[in-house]
Amino acid sequence: xxxxxxxxxxxxxxxxxxxxxxxxxxxxxxxxxxxxxxxxxxxxxxxxxxxxxxxxxxxxxxxxxxxxxxxxxxxxxxxxxxxxxxxxxxxxxxxxxxxxxxxxxxxxxxxxxxxxxxxxxxxxxxxxxxxxxxxxxxxxxxxxxxxxxxxxxxxxxxxxxxxxxxxxxxxxxxxxxxxxxxxxxxxxxxxxxxxxxxxxxxxxxxxxxxxxxxxxxxxxxxxxxxxxxxxxxxxxxxxxxxxxxxxxxxxxxxxxxxxxxxxxxxxxxx
Length: 270
What we know:
By secondary structure, the protein is an alpha/beta fold. It has eleven helices and nine strands.
């Protein structure tokens, strides 16, 4: 690491090889931040690192790992220590969905899901937070979802629940750490163009949704970056999504639940 890169803030992005994580990596590089890229697919990460280094003149380090392994967060932080790297900006983005009914899936699949979307988020934050507090500067973006603000529906049973956890976790953490110069934001996008629905096998279903419901991943990443820098604890990208989040709070719960129940089969597989 040269003197120039040592003076820049460095960001760790989980799930950096595709989708919103890939978009965050590009936005952070555009804003002049050095990067630590992690996901399962090392080849994609290495290609991305070379691209961002060439295009933006930043330093990008690749550490491939699988956050569904309970030991992965500890391994990742140990690898950072070995490389003498500290994290100024943490983007907890890695995630996916488990389609189908709860009883129709295996516990192993659900356990791995919770490890990635809940436990890894909490553990990575816990392990990296003391350094940010000591340096009196840090930014944490926890990628949640609009689903975490709406009533739960059938299918992908733990998805909305896990995202609701991320939102409440981020709110509490933002209050705890503000006095140390840290900002924490839960970003809550709705439907976003990415590989998410290809992985869950619901691409055909969600493709029937109106185009007005969809956002590009780079729009989500740019807006979420600006939100955390501004100290916004919970941010919903997109005007329509923000309106839906507001309506879910002000309309009677049975009304919102009924609407979700009638429309859930358009984007969920049970």
